[in-house]
Amino acid sequence: VHPNVSQGCQGGCATCSDYNGCLSCKPRLFFVLERIGMKQIGVCLSSCPSGYYGTRYPDINKCAKCKADCDTCFTRNFCTKCKSGFYLYSGKCLEKCPDGLEANNHTMECTNIVHCETSEWSPWSPCMKKGKTCGFKRGNEVRVREIVQHPSARGNPCPATTESRKCVVQRKRCQKEGKGKKNREEKRKKSNTDESKETRQESKGRAARRQNREQRENNNNKTQPKKRKAPNKEQDLAPVDTAH
């Protein structure tokens, strides 16, 4: 250490040297040696850099280097991230994962092997041939199932998700869609026409009956003689004055 030790240091150093940099750090900071060319310079940091882990002592907080295969670590014996070519498992960096585990190249970890899982089969579809359910005797029916868990790299692959089998149906003719639709339209129009015709006929009948009734009433009024005014009996029985 260079004998020229200064107390007025910068960058978090408590004591420092012009040649070796920081010799001690202020409270709560970590002391770490950084290599610059052929020499090492002491620096004080709030947290340890990648490849180091921090340890706290009563007199100094220091950053110690992780193992060679470890990129970041919690302690020297517990790695949290491995360097390229190694897989993390239980705090250790391994070139090959243990039996029953597989290497995950995305996370660079040893993970459990995941096998494929599927749902239950669906019911069989109607018997069909060329997309139709009529006009044939022999066809095919299908059932399907879904994949609910895709496998990992070493997991069991997924089985078929579709099954087909031959089926026999009673042969029947297919009704043409256009003709059937046209017939339905014609029936609907005819029904509406019949209803309208019946309504019109009923209206005409009611009008004719009303007109006939009015005509009869007019005829009766014309042919019936007028009633004569009844004489006043009291006036006819009055005595005649013949004195004059």
Features:
glycoprotein; alpha+beta; wnt signaling pathway; R-spondin; two-stranded antiparallel ribbon; repeat; 21% helix; Hormone Receptor, Insulin-like Growth Factor Receptor 1, Chain A domain 2; 244 residues; TSP-1 type 1 repeat; 3-stranded antiparallel β-sheet; elongated; disulfide bond; disordered C terminus
Describe the 3D structure.
With 244 residues, this protein is α+β, with helices and mostly antiparallel strands. Among the domains are: 8-65, Hormone Receptor, Insulin-like Growth Factor Receptor 1, Chain A, domain 2 (Hormone Receptor, Insulin-like Growth Factor Receptor 1, Chain A domain 2), CATH 2.10.220; 76-112, no CATH class; 117-168, TSP-1 type 1 repeat. It is 21% helix and 33% strand. The chain has 2 helices and 17 strands. The protein has helices at 177-223, 233-236; strands spanning 5-6, 13-17, 21-25, 30-36, 39-45, 52-56, 61-65, 70-75, 78-82, 87-89, 92-94, 101-104, 109-112, 117-118, 138-144, 147-149, 162-168. A 3-stranded antiparallel beta sheet has the order 1-2-3, with no helix packed on it. Strands 4-5 form a two-stranded antiparallel ribbon. It has a two-stranded antiparallel ribbon with strand order 6-7. Strand 4 (30-36) and strand 5 (39-45) form a beta hairpin. It starts with a strand and ends in an 8-residue tail after the last helix.
Helix and strand topology:
Layout: E1 5-6, E2 13-17, E3 21-25, E4 30-36, E5 39-45, E6 52-56, E7 61-65, E8 70-75, E9 78-82, E10 87-89, E11 92-94, E12 101-104, E13 109-112, E14 117-118, E15 138-144, E16 147-149, E17 162-168, H1 177-223, H2 233-236
Antiparallel strand pairs: 1-2, 2-3, 4-5, 6-7, 8-9, 10-11, 12-13, 14-16, 15-17
